[in-house]
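hey m, so remember when u said the tokens were messed up on ur end? i reran from scratch. heres the input so u can diff it against urs
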Amino acid sequence: MATIRPQTLKDSTRFGQAEWDARVELAACYRIFDHLGWTELIYNHITLRIPGPEKHFLINPFGLHYSEVTASNLVKIDLDGNNVGDNDYPVNRAGYVIHSAIHRHRDDAHCVMHTHTTAGMAVACLAEGLARDNFYGAFLPKVAYHDFQGVTTDLAEQADLVKSLGQANALILRSHGLLSCGETPAKAFSVLWTLERACQIQLASHSMNKPVLPLPAKAFERSSEVANRPNYEPEQLVLDWLRREIDKHDPSYAS
């Protein structure tokens, strides 16, 4: 196969404004993940639905690193994996199988994020899973689990995946990694970042061979009260700040 190189586009004339805005927002997320070190060579995925009744969604071109993803080289596919744009980049099948299952069955899951971070995979390999015994674990209302069935390329696994996720927005893929979903990239990112931080702290605290303090029930109650406070939505503020950080160094994602 020929070497895949990033494409560029100077304007959004190939796309409607709503799709172009979604492309820029998603491309920014890929660069933010790269900035945070949440990359795995050319693997893993973040997907985002394009506004409209078709449930078409955008996914990264298979063969490009997250640092090479731009608004214009994102691939638009339908729920059956068909390319519905004029971009001829390939799509990783595992990414299609996982993400299309969630986009198809969860109307609120407009954005789906999946990572293979060291901390996330380490906790995913533990029989007990997430210990929920640190500050960040208290902010996660529900964490679902999906048993490992091998590389996720078989469509037959989609039903199990959707059942495992249920109505949760955080999913630990056992022996595999972390996944989040949300109505917006900001909400999906907030869930994933919190889950990732909980895994990082667990990995550090449990490695010290000392007793770990359990969290009192009131800690979960208060954290839930804060998270559900009316008009308390810092998720977008966080993602906007990260995007400004990316803009300082390389704003090419918006091309």
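this time it looks ok to me. The longest strand covers residues 177-182. if urs says something different then somethings off w ur setup not the seq
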